[in-house]
Amino acid sequence: MKHIPIQPTEPRCPGIVIAALRGGSGKTIFSVGIIAALRNRGATVAPFKKGPDYIDAGWLALSAGRPCYNLDTFLIDTPTIQQSYRRHSRHTDVAVIEGNRGLYDCINTEGKTSTAELAKLLDLPVILCLDVTKSTRTMAAIVAGCVQFDPGLRIAGVVLNHVAGSRHERIVRDSVTRYCGIPVLGALPKLRRQIFTERHMGLVPTYEHQWAQDAVAAIAELAEKHLDLTAISEMIGFRGTERTGRFSLPSDETDVAAGKASPPLVAGDRPRIGVLRDSAFQFYYPENLDALVQAGAELVVTSPLFEDNLPEVDALYIGGGFPETHAARLAKNVTYREQLRQLADEGLPIYAECGGLMYLGRELVLEEGTFPMAGVLPVSFGFSKRPQGHGYTIVQVDQANPFYEIGQFLRGHEFHYSSVRESAEACGPTVFKMERGSGLIPGRDALCRNNVLATYTHIHALGTPQWAPALVARARAYRGSRRKRES
Hints:
The chain is an alpha/beta fold.
């Protein structure tokens, strides 16, 4: 597979890619542990997540004390991926990228969108996580196969997960070293308790638990005890000094890591875009928020879980999350819901993704009851135990809407267990024709009403650069019309 390495136009931050043979092998635990432990040793670590992930990225951000940026070669073109890596690792000591799925897993047979492709694109070495459950010498054969499969990829070391004991570790370690010539950089034993709780999207979001910081600290201690951090540091190119004390995050850095810190307020005519942000609505790429600010907006964080009234805003951006786990509280906040519906009727620009789409609907129908939502859109949502949409999407805009031109193709992703309970006819007009993915109804996605556009498809601002300027332009126009009405 042909790749384009980063051109050495400036000194580049040293980095490493953490990969595995499959999903669920421990990449996040190793990535969080290495990031937090290196940070304890004095490193400023730039965290990245490969792929369209929000939850793992939240843990990586928490461990690094700074935002985690996504590098996705399906959503974002090659030059922009490289620029993003350079920009967000500048003025840091180390970059750590957590891969997704298996090392070579991708959407086709050519390697496109794989973790290996990204590692080669950024010219970074790989540490391979091995789940060695009920396996010994076979792991050496697997590692040898990974090395030979693409000689252009640098697998610089392996770490072992779920080791049963010292004898088990010794056999695997000696086999990999002897037959592959690759160092084993540590071995994590089977844990008696689960530090990261699982849920249907993977790891639970850091927003939902106060113990998140303690979990990161515990993983950092495991990394110090079971990984050869000195060898890993030397491999990456970082040589720091040991810090004393256990892992901790100052309160202001915790806010930044969780994405709760608002950009500095800017005086003048910047339109105010409200961002619903709490444990119900938490899935926002940092680049999307950055893009809105760069396009001229002032962001105002608001929450229907903690506030009775919407702040004065010129537009709303409602991201994904888990409104179903907060359905009772969202339904109870009648004032907030009614204000949102009234503003939507008056033409307030609103862009909503997945969880935001559900909140704008009529109701959520769960096993424990039916909960009214904002009622902006004429649809109700039910839930399944299996994903109703999962993976990358490609959509063509084929109907008029407030934010995209007809004929545009957009790349995004979806992951939802919810689905609309109404028929396609009852849903009303949709804006997106699905070229790839499940969408809202067969072959279609995105409901549009007035200046509201709500969709299951998540977009990334670096891959959809027209999105932020369009939302800000609509906000500015709404602000102007509101001022005229008030004057």
